[in-house]
């Protein structure tokens, strides 16, 4: 496994070592020992989630607050997404900065998103299957987020406005300037 720094502390791109032959391929998508050894971060995950979406869907930007804050390890097993993580850690030198990474079944890249980030993705392919590991359990009362089209963040989701599909719940998220600390 190769680890690539993103410029946002502890937000990492992970490239697994893929073994291919005429039969197909094999790779270890996660190994707690290797992850902790190479990153110095906890690799203890307690919940796996999966979503399926069609082209133009934008999910996010989401987070959990307080004792239910979550770090995530995300990847795509079908299709391609633009994955976005925004640093919202108070006092962070990269507060309000974000990274956007194309994750796909083809490139097999993963993104580790530490606690203190809001996270979302847009679906660039016809459909996409998105998997993520979380280091804490989901708690509905602890949900928070930032509206996907926040003017201060100015994220290019790579989806024309006419093709964007956003849930009613996500359309109610507040601007970045109104985000309460997570």
Descriptive overview:
The protein has 182 residues and is mostly beta strands. The protein has one domain (7-13, 46-178): Sandwich (Jelly Rolls), CATH 2.60.120. Helices cover 7% and strands 41% of the residues. It has 2 helices and 13 strands, in the order ββββαβββββββββα. The strands form 3 sheets. It has a 6-stranded antiparallel sheet, with no helix packed on it. A hairpin with a 6-residue loop joins β1 (2-5) and β2. The longest helix is centred in the N-terminal third of the chain and has 8 residues, at 32-39. The radius of gyration is 16 Å and the shape is globular. The two termini are 30 Å apart. The model has no long low-confidence stretch (mean pLDDT 95).
List the helices and strands and how they pair.
Blueprint: E1 2-5, E2 12-15, E3 18-21, E4 24-27, H1 32-39, E5 47-54, E6 58-64, E7 72-78, E8 80-87, E9 98-104, E10 110-113, E11 117-123, E12 127-134, E13 143-145, H2 168-171
Antiparallel strand pairs: 1-2, 2-10, 3-4, 5-12, 6-11, 6-13, 7-10, 7-12, 8-9, 8-11
